[in-house]
């Protein structure tokens, strides 16, 4: 017995006439009669009493009508659930983000938009460094993640830049470079300074770019300490332990203890916001979220996130 057989049966039961049911189904009457006879043979009972003006359900037919209606309703509901999943309206998506990625307004905006558009989609979020997020997406422990500069580009992963912003130098408020907060700072002004950077295995991109830029300009700096997360390095800047670099969207963190100045001569230090996902996982909830992120990035409201 197949779903189509139940649909044929229900059409005949509702029409009370095989010819009219065949017309409603868009098929010829003889094949429909054959399908009904085959169904009766399989069940082992007559489902209809035939008479010149049509057909009438037997007791077995009434029982099958009740069961068939329930099964067809459940089947339709399953189809709807599967379609919702394929189109990203239902299911579960796990999203990771780095501290600095979460600090940009775009990240929470994309999550809010996803919750608003797909209220039946379960969204799990986690925070980690870029290396861990990349590994988790690769291993399918996360569906996608927001990070800044990719630390590695394993095969099978896509890295899509959503936007880009300037980087700023984070300076203890009592440091000599904090005096003129509005003026851009030159790399040469970092000569001999102690830097607080995130560990290379975790998030080397932005910090490696800063060290490379200093090397190109023959600026000697001292690596004071390496930390696990960007928020930790800003905590240490606030404590006066050294200078650091951060995306401009993190400006304002420890506003009473840290001054943020833009860089004057370091275009390579701009901070991207990058979405990472598996190239093979672009359907269902992940595909819907990717499409939403692209829409948000391309929208006229994009200026709100700059």
Brief account:
This protein is an alpha/beta fold. It contains ten helices and twelve strands.
Residues in helix, %: 40-55%
How many angstroms does the end-to-end distance come to? 60 Å
On the 0 to 100 scale, the average pLDDT is 88
Q: Any idea what the shape is?
A: rod-shaped
User: Total number of helical segments?
Assistant: 10
Description of the structure:
The two termini are 60 Å apart. A hairpin with a 2-residue loop joins β1 (48-51) and β2 (54-57). This protein has helices at 3-15, 18-25, 29-43, 59-86, 99-103, 106-117, 130-138, 204-216, 230-238, 284-298; strands at residues 48-51, 54-57, 91-97, 121-127, 144-147, 157-165, 167-172, 194-198, 222-227, 244-247, 258-262, 271-278. It is of the alpha/beta class. α1 crosses α2 (18-25), α1 crosses α4 and α6 (106-117) crosses α10 (284-298). A 5-stranded mixed sheet has the order 4-3-5-12-6, sandwiched between helices. It has 10 helices and 12 strands. It has 3 domains: 3-86, Orthogonal Bundle (Arc Repressor Mutant, subunit A), CATH 1.10.10.10; 94-156 and 279-305, Periplasmic binding protein-like II (D-Maltodextrin-Binding Protein, domain 2, 3-Layer(aba) Sandwich); 167-269, Periplasmic binding protein-like II (D-Maltodextrin-Binding Protein, domain 2, 3-Layer(aba) Sandwich). The radius of gyration is 31 Å and the shape is rod-shaped. 42% of the residues lie in helices and 23% in strands.
């Amino acid at each position: 017995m197949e779903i189509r057989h139940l649909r044929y049966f229900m059409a005949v039961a509702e029409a009370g006439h095989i010819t009219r049911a065949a017309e409603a189904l868009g098929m010829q009457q003889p094949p429909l009669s054959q399908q009904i006879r085959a169904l009766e043979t399989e069940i082992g009972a007559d489902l209809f009493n035939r008479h010149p003006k049509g057909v009438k359900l037997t007791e077995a037919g009434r029982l099958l009508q009740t069961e068939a209606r329930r099964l067809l309703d459940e089947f339709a509901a399953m189809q709807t659930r599967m379609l919702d999943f394929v189109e990203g309206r239902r299911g579960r998506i796990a999203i990771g983000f780095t501290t600095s990625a979460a600090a940009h307004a775009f990240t929470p905006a994309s999550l809010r938009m996803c919750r608003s558009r797909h209220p039946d989609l379960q969204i799990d979020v986690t925070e980690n460094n870029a290396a861990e997020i990349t590994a988790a997406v690769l291993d399918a422990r996360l569906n996608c993640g927001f990070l800044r500069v990719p630390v590695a580009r394993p095969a099978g992963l896509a890295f899509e830049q959503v936007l880009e912003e300037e980087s700023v130098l984070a300076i203890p408020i009592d440091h000599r470079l904090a005096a003129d907060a509005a003026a851009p700072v030159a790399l040469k002004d970092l000569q001999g300074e102690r830097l607080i950077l995130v560990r290379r295995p975790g998030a080397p991109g932005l910090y490696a770019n800063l060290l490379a830029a200093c090397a190109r300009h023959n600026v000697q700096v001292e690596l004071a300490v390496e930390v696990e997360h960007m928020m930790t390095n800003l905590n240490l800047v606030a404590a006066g332990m050294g200078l650091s670099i951060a995306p401009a969207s993190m400006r304002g963190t420890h506003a009473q203890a840290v001054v943020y100045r833009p860089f004057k001569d370091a275009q390579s230090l701009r901070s991207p916001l990058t979405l990472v996902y598996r190239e093979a996982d672009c359907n269902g909830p992940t595909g819907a979220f990717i499409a939403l992120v692209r829409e948000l990035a391309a929208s006229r409201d994009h200026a709100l996130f700059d």
